[in-house]
Design goal:
Length: 163
């Protein structure tokens, strides 16, 4: 039986191949192992695939794309609401305009109502300011039923929640 549902941004997939920060790599591997064991369900968007394809290192790009086969994720559909929400997140200065794709990741999680967004992007996504702004925005925009999706967490946070 599948438990919680998580949108997984590109940064998490990248840590499958991280050789320097062992703790993050191990947490990421454990997170994906739970998906293989069908204890959690993972979701991505076309944006994740686009970001993987933009990776400059060809070897890493191939490994990232292969990981989508090793750890199957459901690709969420694009909806206009995602773009609108992302624009509001940027307008509220939770994420800088030049990193609007990070706000789009949040939009996918909220609009599709998953249990949380898992990211290693501590600079823009998994930080207290973004969490507060996104939570307030969800309330203001009437996304109360999707409030869980405002749970912006790293893989370690997600593992703690799952225990």
């Amino acid at each position: 039986m599948i438990g919680r549902q998580y949108y997984v941004d590109t940064s998490v997939w990248g840590y499958l191949f991280e050789d320097i920060l062992r703790e993050k790599k191990e947490a990421t591997e454990t997170f994906f192992r739970l998906a293989q064991e069908k204890k959690i369900e993972i979701f991505i968007s076309a944006l994740v695939i686009e970001e993987m394809n933009r990776t400059g290192d060809r070897n890493l790009r191939d490994r990232l794309l292969q990981s989508l086969k090793d750890y199957p994720a459901t690709v969420l559909s694009y909806q206009d609401e995602i773009e609108k929400l992302a624009s509001k997140i940027v307008d509220m200065e939770a994420i800088p305009e030049e990193f609007e794709d990070d706000a789009r990741h949040i939009g996918y999680a909220i609009i599709h109502g998953v249990d949380g967004l898992v990211s290693w992007n501590m600079k823009h996504i998994v930080r207290i300011t973004t969490r507060r702004v996104v939570s307030a925005l969800c309330r203001m925009e009437g996304h109360k039923e999707r409030a869980n999706s405002a749970n912006l967490m790293n893989a370690v946070d997600a593992l703690v929640v799952l225990r």
